[in-house]
Amino acid sequence: MAIRKTFDQEIQQLKDEILLMGSMVEQATIDSVEALKKRDLAWSERIISADKDINAKRFDLENRVMIVIATQQPMARDLRVIASILEVIGELERMGDYAKGIGVINRRMGDQPLLKPLVDIPRMAEKGTSMLHRALAAFVNEDAETARLIPPEDDEVDQLYVQVYRELMTYILVDPSSIERANWLLWAAHNLERFADRVTNICERTVFVVTGEYKETRTSYDELN
User: Fold this and answer.
1) How many domains, in total, are found in the chain?
2) Which tens digit of pLDDT belongs to each residue from 122-157?
3) Residue-number span of the structural domain to which 11 is assigned
C-alpha cells in the first residue's frame, strides 16, 4: 500500500511538472510570434536562448520517470501512464523547438521588413496554444472525453495555414522578388501548423491512458493530404 501511495504521488508530481513545461512552451510560442510581428530581434534572441530551459525540463522529467520505473513497481496501467508521460514530454520539447524556430526566422530576416502585416499567423498561435492548454489539462485529469473534442479544432489551424499560403503566393505572383520574404512567413506558419498536430498527439495519448486503446485521430485536412 505504501508503494502504491508513493507511486501515485510521484505520478502526480510528474503531471504537475508537465503543466509547468506546457506553460513554458505556450509562452514561448506566443512570444515568438509577437517578436516576429514587431520585428524585435532582441526578444527573439531571448526566446532562442530560453529554449535550453525547455530542453533541460524535458531531460529532468525523463530522468525522474526512469527513477520511478526503477524504484516503484508499475503495473500494466501504470506503464501506460508512464509511457504516455514520456511521449507528452517529447511532444512539448518539439513544440518548444517550433517557437525557437520562429525566433530563428526573425533573426535571419535581419533588417528586412515583413512582407505583410501578420494577421493569420498570430491567430494560429493563439488557437494552437489554447488547444495545448486544454489538452494538457485533459491529460493530467485523464479526461478522455475532453481529449476527444480537441483534435477536430486542428482543422481551424490547418485552414489558417492554407489561407496564409494562398495569400503569400499572390504576393509572389505579383512580385517574384518577394519570394524570400514570403518563405520566411510560410515557414513560421508551418511551424504553427505542426504545433497543433502535436497537440492532437497528446490528446490521443490521453485516450490511450484511459481506455488502453490507441487510435490515431484524422481530421478532414489530414485525409486530403
Assistant:
1) 1
2) 999 999 999 999 999 999 999 999 999 999 999 999
3) 2-223
